[in-house]
């Protein structure tokens, strides 16, 4: 709990007559000299006395500086070096939480004088002399209780301020994540449109390249026939050879088929990327469907290639796994988050020779997907926290701490599966995803 009860109180009596301090000691500690002779830790009430404003100010200052503060001060209004009201004003400048009992003899200062000097304060009590032991006891208990409640209120306010600050930071982070999610959703929609727009020209560029390849093969065959026929015309052969050299026909015949083949390979890669983007851009859809896990992983690797191609080689060992019922967009998001996380771990480790290995297999009624990397591993003290929201070991601005948390939530809550991690410092990390073949409703 954020409220702690006080077990020891320090009370200062500022009075030219030392009788008040002795009277308090006798009343609360059973001896007039208890506070002067007993160990402070053995007393619930420690009473100290002084006779002047200078001594009182010094005592309060020492208490604040050492951390052994006074909770209550009795101040005689008439002091050898000044008036009690002026002393109280000085003491509150040193310790604003100090509670004060002003003891006066009739006629004492009136209310107007008190307010003019100190302002209105609930930390001040007026006790007119002579006062009985009962009055003294009641005043001490009331003042200390007010001081304790004031401290508790301050602790509560401090605690609430901390909670508000934490909640505010969490809300700000949530808003940033929401904004990022909205941006990603917009990018997803844009990617779907771009993929559709690219698909059509990519298709006819590929068709045209294949046609050009066929045309070139026909031309090459025709040239060979021309050469055969013209070889009998010796008087024209030299002229034809010179023209072929000028046109660099030998190079064209050798290089053109390679250029067409490379262009066809490039356009085929574009088509594969576009198809992968079209599938991946539907992550906002909530409809369940049946997918081939191996194909989904291949598409994800295609999309994520830029994140790992400079830092790691990828090996895939796809088993004979059945199609599974899932939310395709969300599941590919899981694959993407873990693959990108593996690539970043390898890059941050800066060990070179990075490797990401992906395996799939069917085990009983489950499909298992293992994604392993040979990065630096996860330190043992934080392994239990990697799926916590907003937890990240990346530098500020490089990670929101949401990727693995989102993956865990999608696998466990949305699909009823499990997501676990095995890691060894310096050896690497493996994530294991286990999914039911069919969603449980």
Textual characterization of the structure:
- Keywords: ATP-binding, Coiled coil, Kinase, Nucleotide-binding, Transferase, Two-component regulatory system.
- With 441 residues, the chain is α/β, with parallel strands linked by helices.
- The chain folds into three domains: 9-131, 3-Layer(aba) Sandwich (Rossmann fold); 174-281; 282-441, Heat Shock Protein 90.
- The chain is 55% helix and 18% strand.
- It contains eleven helices and 14 strands.
- It has helices at 19-29, 34-37, 53-66, 84-94, 111-118, 133-230, 234-247, 249-280, 293-308, 328-349, 403-414; strands at residues 9-14, 45-50, 72-76, 78-79, 82-83, 99-104, 124-128, 289-291, 312-318, 324-326, 354-363, 366-373, 418-424, 428-436.
- The protein has a five-stranded parallel sheet with strand order 2-1-3-6-7, sandwiched between helices. Strands 9-11-12-14-13 form a five-stranded mixed sheet. The protein has a two-stranded antiparallel sheet with strand order 4-5.
- The chain starts with 8 loop residues before the first strand and ends in a 5-residue tail after the last strand.
- The relative contact order is 0.06.
Key terms for this structure?
441 residues, alpha/beta, Rossmann fold, Heat Shock Protein 90, 3 domains, 5-stranded parallel beta sheet, 5-stranded mixed beta sheet, 11 helices, 14 strands, rod-shaped, disordered N terminus
Lay out the secondary structure.
Elements: E1 9-14, H1 19-29, H2 34-37, E2 45-50, H3 53-66, E3 72-76, E4 78-79, E5 82-83, H4 84-94, E6 99-104, H5 111-118, E7 124-128, H6 133-230, H7 234-247, H8 249-280, E8 289-291, H9 293-308, E9 312-318, E10 324-326, H10 328-349, E11 354-363, E12 366-373, H11 403-414, E13 418-424, E14 428-436
Parallel strand pairs: 1-2, 1-3, 3-6, 6-7, 9-11
Antiparallel strand pairs: 4-5, 8-10, 11-12, 12-14, 13-14
Helix pairs in contact: 3-4, 6-8, 8-9, 9-10, 10-11
